[in-house]
């Protein structure tokens, strides 16, 4: 049976090894997707594309609290007000919708609305996570 590692040096070394393995995995998946794109295969329908997107999303969501530990706003941050976050997310979605319609006029309006809505939800999700982590951190510092 394996024992739990208690030495901090070994824990950090183990985390660095995991980080390198993750990097190699991501580069490998990216190379396979680029090869598929060059060969003319459907890249976006590939399960590897889904794995790559989920992997990058998990990495970003898991690293947000660490990034916020070192984030010291010099002025009033946009993340302090949730209505501002909602407004910015909606503005990004509307902007994407109009950009989609402008760049590809042969596409339907419904596709543009769906693309803008998805982008708006993605920004709202990430900004909401940052807002609630920062709010919790501020409450912990006040106590």
TrEMBL record:
Record keywords: Membrane, Transmembrane, Transmembrane helix
Transmembrane region(s): 20-38, 44-64, 85-103, 109-133
Top-level division of the source organism's lineage: Bacteria
Name the UniProt record assigns to this protein: Branched-chain amino acid ABC transporter substrate-binding protein
